[in-house]
Amino acid sequence: MTPPDARPPAPESEPLSFEQALERLETIVEELESGELSLEQSLARYEEGVRLSQRLTQTLDDAEKRIERLVEDEGRPPTTRPLEPEPKPNERRQPVEDELPF
Fold first, then answer.
1. Mean pLDDT of the chain
2. Residue 90 belongs to a domain
3. E strand segments, 1-102
4. How many domains does the chain have?
5. In this structure, what is the dihedral angle of CA atoms 9, 27, 18, 68, given to the nearest 10 degrees?
6. Looking at the predicted structure, is the pLDDT value of residue 82 above 60?
7. 89 belongs to a structural domain
8. Could you tell me which of 4, 95, 74 has the C-alpha nearest to residue 41?
């Protein structure tokens, strides 16, 4: 196993792919859980992990906005519409006539 402090954080100039960022975040979690890092190393890893988590969340949110759903209107061929975000528990969305439930 590589010593916890042997692998420095990825430089900001080399953007990681989604998969690489997720893998790095998993590595950070393992390093933090090992308890082998100093306080300063733990803080640095934690801060890097928070930045990666925010970036991954934003990437997933952007991907969700690009997803389309299939809509069938009576008498017309099926078409697609952008997926609308799910309403929050305290918000109620008015159903569209003849809308499929998915």
1. 79
2. no
3. 68-71, 79-82
4. 1
5. -140
6. yes
7. no
8. 4
Contact present, 63 and 91 (Cβ < 8 Å): no
Q: Is residue 42 part of a domain?
A: yes
- Quote the domain boundaries for residue 38: 1-83+95-102
What 3-state DSSP class applies to 101?
coil
Characterise 98 by phi-psi region: left (phi > 0), alpha (psi -120 to 50), beta (else).
left
Q: How confident is the model at residue 95 (pLDDT cuts 50, 70, 90)?
A: low
Q: What is the distance between the alpha carbons of residues 88 and 101, in angstroms, rounded to a whole number?
A: 17
Percentage of residues in the chain with pLDDT exceeding 90? 44
Residue 50 located in a structural domain: yes
* 8 CB-near residues (< 8 Å, 6+ apart): none
- The continuous run of DSSP H or E covering 99 comes out as none
pLDDT for 67: 78
